[in-house]
Amino acid sequence: MNRFYSPMLNPNYEGVNIDDLVVATYLIGTSKDEDPIIKASSIGIEQTTGSWIDVPAETDEVRAKYASKIIGIYEVPDYENQFNVNQNVPDDGTRFYVVRIGFPVANIDDNIPLLFATILGNVTAMPNLRILDIDFPKSFACKFQGPKFGIQGIRDILGVKERPLLNNMIKPCTGYTPDVGAKLFYEAAVGGVDIIKDDELIGGSRVFNNLEERVEKNMAAAAKADKIKGEKTLYAVNITDEISRLKDNAMKAINAGANCLMVDTFGIGLSALRYLAEDTKINVPILSHCCFGASWTVSPYQGVSSTVLTKLTRMCGADTLLIELPYGKFDIVPFKYRKSITTCTGKLYDIKPTLPFVGGGVIPGIIPKILDDAGYDILLGVGAGIHGHKMGPQAGAKAFRYIIDACMNNIPLKEAAKDHEELRVSLETWGMYGKENLKDNYAI
């Protein structure tokens, strides 16, 4: 028997201990007459015990313990008859299979870089190979702390029990001084924003904007605004930097008064996020920005699904995670957007839920749609929709709080706008979902 057909490498799902395996689900394309069992087994062996040719030390005993296990191959569509294949697939056509490969936990254990080396590895250089999902057994996931705070922890800090939370990104994105940023911060905070964050483009200290000075001035602005509005404001300061400077940045920010941190997760790496989140001295929530992650996910036939990156970001400790919105600037597939939200909030063993943070062109006229899709355990990420308001950022923030209250009380948008000038101006400026083509608002 060809060893690639062996039940040792191709067991029934019921014939393995699934708690011993991290199971990756791939989309794999083959030529018309290529054998998918050989293809899948070759990929699995390449990423575990073997190579393109048998080597003497790769014994059956080694394979039994440490080789991959092909536990599912499903063609789409699911041909059973060669006549149908010949009718529907041209000679130079591609056949696609969903393939589930189990990798022994012992090969990876508590090691994110090795997880990537194993499941993505060299094989991602092949055409038509995409990671759709990774199923983590409890024996693997239990090594991860996950978010320190998560949804409930952030709500407890802010003292907000039920309503959607409101975030603002300081705009302009970069190039401003701490004094300019603090003025913008105050206007947004006093208008009713719950969490204000730096943009992803102003990490660490810049020559024009020192990290500690930025924190001190923004936290002073938060204290002033909190006394007026009677609510607490979190400031997510962007500490993104070289890994060797991350911990120092975090402690400088916290010592300067920061009550939340932010990182560009796929710039610093998931292991670096985990390093920060599991440090007992870092006792504030961490906001994870998704920038650069789309370079992994955007191809439909290559790379990694956003589901995988969302799940790993939660496991590695993000208290809140930015998810790009399909109704704003970007053209995210709505199903993938909703799937990312449920990946943040659904049960994942004992790991706390991550607060979904949705952004990318959020305006008041889109809020009812967002809440209908995602519910109230959501952080609404607003940048220019506040700072670009014709009446100023304080008015921009108030417009969002009015629409949040209207949605909580089932009041239609137009009705709410009659009593609130700030909201009326927003709706007239940028429009409403379902009424106008909101994509016309965005230049990209």
UniProtKB/TrEMBL annotation:
InterPro entries found in the cross-reference section: RuBisCO, RuBisCO_lsu_C, RuBisCO_lsu_C_sf, RuBisCO_lsu_fd_N, RuBisCO_lsu_N_sf
Domain Ribulose bisphosphate carboxylase large subunit C-terminal: 150-430
Limits of the Ribulose bisphosphate carboxylase large subunit ferrodoxin-like N-terminal domain: 19-140
Domain of life of the source: Bacteria
Pfam families listed in its UniProt record: RuBisCO_large, RuBisCO_large_N
PANTHER family given in the database record: RIBULOSE BISPHOSPHATE CARBOXYLASE, RIBULOSE BISPHOSPHATE CARBOXYLASE LARGE CHAIN
Name of the featured protein: Ribulose bisphosphate carboxylase, large subunit (RbcL-1)
